[in-house]
Amino acid sequence: MGGRGDNPRMKTIRLRPGKERSLLRRHPWVFQGSIAKGGGDVGETVRVESDEGRFLAWAAFSPQSQIRARAWSFDEAERIDADFFARRIQRALDLRRRLAPDSDGIRLVHGEADGLPGLIVDRYAGTLSVQFLAAGTERWKDVIADALLAATGLQRLYERSDSGVRGLEGLAPRSGWLRGSGETELTIREHGWQLTLDVAEGHKTGYYLDQRDNRALFADVVRQLGCKRVLNCYSYTGGFSVAALAGGASEVWSVDSSAPALARAQRHVELNAASLAFDPSAHRAVDADVNATLRNLLKEGRSFDAIVLDPPKFAPSAAHADRASRAYKDINRLAFKLLAPGGALLTFSCSGGIGAELFHKIVAGAGMDAEVDGYLLKRLEAAPDHPTTVSFPEGEYLKGLYILKTA
Ligand code: SAH
């Protein structure tokens, strides 16, 4: 098994002068260019020292990644062993218990923010879906899997280590049952509605739990403002569409370029119609490109009382920010035009490369071009079971704006 804090042959990496500053601020990443000497095996625990030999952190080494080491602990007395992982997982679970989200779909471990860099754990009712994204988590996979089952009392853990970022760590994709077995088709309850997902096929770990609280907000907005015609762009499996129907909308369009996602969106509408007392025929699934659809809807002279724009990551990194900015501006401009006076827009970006301030500017530019103004009623972010920490601002990725078009 992987590195241990008491190993006398523990390997060390020595940083270049001045490169200790971010670790002293408890930022958990060590970049390749900061290292003067030393190394380790894939995922091995190494001691990280300043250029003067001062202890900085215990970290998982990743020989192929630009992020050459990720800190497990800043406490020299702490051993990185099975108990360490059990403690960190318990701490993450305790936070979620205190937050008590209104759902049995919940993010239990959110990587760096929970002191477990490269580990994502989502709970979908009685099943865990886990991404091991970095060399350190890969090395400790069995220990982590057992600790997760012990802490939750569950028996089923599906591995979804098929994210592209594993390639940056030199790790091959892998998915399948790691513990337990059975059906990969699951049902969760979110707020007042039911949703389904296939843990083997769905995006990320199966579903977008980060938007849970924004879906509840959307149901409230639709109800409060009496929105009737709703357009849900990049709908995936229709979470915001069900929210709109729950809020009393009478015509809801889900637009996505994935036919299987739309088929599931339609199923979600039918699944919830009786208990939420809405007419399932109010839903229309449109299998098409959003940008082209927005243009067509404008040409047809349609308008909507509420619009959601929740596109995929247009800018995976800051290097893509320019092209992504134009793409965000374009869809927001079209949405502003399609919105009826007084209508509500929930617009999002999940690009790490686009900060909240830049996103606001892009949307402001879109409003200018569309010649409409609006009240910025609320800034939106991921649900609190996807926390960011003070020490790791990079963790912030999802940002959104709730805007009311000026009447
Ligand atoms: N709002 C969703 C999550 C959206 S994820 C939720 O709450 O669950 C982004 C979605 O955008 C994916 O379903 C993907 O299929 C879709 N997508 C990506 N590019 C697209 C395009 N150009 N046109 C339409 N849909 C697109």
End-to-end CA span: 64 Å
Number of domains: 3
What's the overall average pLDDT, rounded? 96
- Total E-strand runs: 20
Label the overall shape: globular
What is the CATH superfamily of the largest domain?
Vaccinia Virus protein VP39
How many strands, what sense, and barrel or not for the largest sheet?
Answer: 7 strands, mixed
**Name of the CATH class of the largest domain:** Alpha Beta
List ligands, each type once: S-adenosyl-L-homocysteine
Strand percent estimate? 25-35%
Number of helices: 11
Q: Kindly provide the radius of gyration, computed on alpha-carbon positions and rounded to a whole number of angstroms.
A: 23 Å
Question: Which stretches are low in confidence, meaning pLDDT under 50 for 5 or more residues running?
Answer: 1-6
Could you explain the architecture of this structure?
The chain has helices at residues 21-24, 82-99, 135-139, 141-152, 165-168, 212-225, 239-246, 259-276, 290-299, 321-338, 356-370; strands at 11-15, 29-31, 35-38, 45-49, 55-61, 67-73, 105-110, 119-124, 127-132, 156-161, 174-179, 185-190, 193-198, 229-233, 251-256, 283-287, 304-309, 339-349, 374-381, 399-405. 31% of the residues lie in helices and 30% in strands. α2 packs across α4 (141-152), α9 packs parallel to α10 and α10 (321-338) crosses α11 (356-370). It is of the alpha/beta class and 407 residues long. It is built from eleven helices and 20 strands. The chain folds into three domains: 12-73, PUA domain (Archaeosine Trna-guanine Transglycosylase, Chain: A, domain 4, Roll); 82-189, RNA methyltransferase domain (HRMD) like (Transcription Regulator spoIIAA, 2-Layer Sandwich); 208-405, Rossmann fold, CATH 3.40.50. Bound molecules: S-adenosyl-L-homocysteine. S-adenosyl-L-homocysteine binds next to α7. Residues 208, 211, 234-237, 239-240, 256-258, 261, 289-290, 310, 312 line the site of S-adenosyl-L-homocysteine.
